[in-house]
Amino acid sequence: MVHDQFTATRRRVLTTGAAVSAAVVAGCIGGDNGTGDGLLYTQEVSPDGDFDPVVAFDAYSAQINNLVYNGLYEYDFDLELQPKLAAGEPEEERDGERYIVELVDGAEFHNGDPVTAEDVVHSLTAPVEEETQNMPTYQMIDVENTEPVDEGTVQIDLEHPYGAFTEIQLAVAVVNASVRQEDTDAYNTDPVGSGPFTFVDWASDEYVEIERWDDYWGDPQPELESVRFEAAEDDAGRVSQILAGDTDAIATVPPEDWDQLEGEDGIEVYRAESPSYMYVAFNCNDGGTTDPDVRRGIAHAFSLDDFVEQNLGESATALESPIPPIVDELGWEFPTDEWAETSPGYDPELAQELLDGAAPDDWNPTIIVPPDDVRIALGEQIASRLDELGYDAEVQSLDFATLGETYVTGDADDYEMYILGWTGGPDPDVYLYNLFHEDNEGIAQGHFYEGSDDFHDDIMAARESVDQDERRELYIDIVDEIVEEVPVIAAYSEHNTIAAQDYVQGLEPHPSVSYNPRLVSDETTVSLEDG
């Protein structure tokens, strides 16, 4: 699973830019940006440089990988899985502990090798065998007994039934097993996939270039000849580029610039609700925030709704729980209204009472945040409100690598709060198990939270059930405790947004950030139109 807002290897710090003034957009000539007949796409952050899906853990590498590789199944624009390398729906056996998948005929890798069951087996088991950061996503797989039935059929065995398996794990990107196993390090930056584009070149923190594979086995065929990915971490820089016509499309339209770009001749803006979950996490391992009354006091000290409205507007939705609305809408029908009523709302008097009664003497909490304008602003909002209540809070903006090394210590001298985000996909398990279960404490973004006697058992019971009604009831109990005990404050779900020159045709943002830009799909295929 790819996580769009955090990676343990990010090394760059945000460069703050000045506000962008209106600029004249260059003429609408497709590809008039140094890329010839190709698309220049400006990401928010440079990829980590992991172009092997077995190890890739950031959305920005995944955005390239999802064009270079095909998945066994792939998400459509409704977050429903559709067969790609698979010939059809999986066949379930042994009460959800075995799945049989047949592959399509004729699928090939870029080097001409056929896509086989052995490649699928390796793609599913390597994250566990190699203990990559993606291991929690696949660790329910029975590595020893997952095997090819024949060249075109794979048998996937699980250690236990897993209710989210068909929605999450079967979306695996399939690697070329023989090439990868020959030299895993080389494969990471010189990948061989079966997708519509081939990997051409990459310069760390500068660009990634991919080209159309003219012998692509699948349908539809790509229309773009090439794509060049560059990054501008500064929001103002990306907006300046699209206004000046120096790029064809930019990811993540800053909320304050939405109206300007939407009203600009020659530019189109797009938005899609996403399964993203931004949160304020408390240090439940050490320090003042181990006391739930301190956590409740902090939650009562500021208005999350006001923050989202003022800083994100229509670019995000405030959350009541760790489960994004788009996931709930896939048939779960959780009691979100009840959670909203139970969640600590803005009440400065109650915040003062709780903190004065529970916070340690001389309590001066540290809030660590990534180099992101909105999350820096959220940290500063919390700190400002705590300062008004008599507590001197400090906000530290850390690059992603340092932040990752810091919050996993669980040491109150390092932090008492941190702000991060997670995109898990269309099932509650990947938010609750990966972030809250004790197996994942200190791994990836797993929180330190002891919970009640049943808390971790309930997460595991829901994970191992294939009965959605049973899972729903367990998840309600789990989220009830999270809302009441406040190990985290669920903050907001940020929509995926793109701005593009109007000669970019067929562009539609995908709910999953790792699929953007979705350039080749059954729903739409992107092309450039001469202006």
Automatic annotation (TrEMBL):
GO terms for molecular function: peptide transmembrane transporter activity. The keyword Transport applies. One of its GO terms (biological process) is peptide transport. It comes from the Archaea. Pfam families: SBP_bac_5. CDD domains: PBP2_NikA_DppA_OppA_like. SUPFAM superfamilies: Periplasmic binding protein-like II. InterPro entries: Peptide/Ni-bd, SBP_5, SBP_5_dom. Residues 80-440 form the Solute-binding protein family domain. The keyword Transport applies. GO terms for cellular component: ATP-binding cassette (ABC) transporter complex; periplasmic space. Keywords: Signal, Transport. Belongs to the bacterial solute-binding protein 5 family. This is ABC transporter periplasmic protein.
